[in-house]
Amino acid sequence: MVKLNVDEEKCIGCGACVAIDPEHFDFNDNGLSSVIKNDNLESANLKNAQESCPTGAISIGDEIVTDQKCSCCENCTSDENCECGCDNCECGK
Ligand code: SF4
Description:
The chain is α+β, with helices and mostly antiparallel strands. It has helices at 16-20, 44-52, and strands at residues 3-6, 25-27, 33-35, 58-61.
């Protein structure tokens, strides 16, 4: 099943997604964005919200990757063996 997800480890609570697409997002008790609806995933507002997220916390996919360390660049493998070497990589930290 396709599922909309906000990665709370990436979300900084900027509110962009909540402002752009209140149909799908609202703040939780921690001041971070939470998914409140998991249908109408083709909406233009949802696409805009996802593209506007400054940290890439919003994903729409078949499965939720919970052990992903980061996705800093196109060479990142998002695991402990990542050797992409870019400055933003969090995998080895
Ligand atoms: S736009 Fe991204 S960082 Fe900002 S509140 Fe939404 S999920 Fe969090």
